[in-house]
Specification:
alpha+beta
Length: 158
């Protein structure tokens, strides 16, 4: 019985000393990066970090500018921002002042605005992507002209 009380006291002390963010939200965030088309380079804050699709770990205590680049396509820019996780702040305040100070100092209560970032890269120089219709072709299809008139289907040789 004494051992159980001692263990409970130790757990209570750890919870009282450490911030909730430090206990439950430590470590980097795993962010998924995808693109259309796949195989785009991922640049984060000016540093190449891989190609899509990819999962990249990012510290939660800062904002990021993400650029997707692929030869023959226009680059796409996205942003990931940090924000304070309200749940961690509320829990810290309920436990006491020390957890608030710890999480504020360590940045443990930050979360990122997104766990997944997708970039849709358009064809460079205004060229249409393969398999897409131009606006005028789309208008004709809406008036009843078969789409096959504009798109070569697999297996059809001309």
């Amino acid at each position: 019985m004494r051992r159980g009380v001692g263990m409970l006291a130790a757990v209570a002390m750890v919870l009282g000393v450490a911030g909730c963010g430090a206990l439950f939200n430590s470590g980097p965030a795993k962010v998924s990066f995808t693109s259309s088309p796949e195989g785009a380079e991922i640049w984060i804050d000016g540093v190449r970090r891989g190609t899509t699709p990819a999962v990249i770990e990012l510290p939660k205590n800062k904002d990021y500018v993400v650029v997707f680049r692929k030869e023959g396509h226009e680059e796409v820019t996205a942003s990931i921002t940090k924000r304070v996780g309200a749940t961690y702040v509320v829990l810290d305040v309920l436990v006491g002042l020390l957890p608030v100070v710890i999480d504020a100092a360590t940045g443990s209560w930050y979360v990122l605005s997104s766990e997944a970032v997708h970039g849709t890269l358009g064809q460079a120089n205004g060229e249409e992507l393969s398999g897409t219709l131009t606006p005028s072709q789309l208008e004709e299809v809406l008036r009843g002209v078969p789409a096959s008139r504009f798109i070569e289907l697999p297996g059809e040789g001309h």
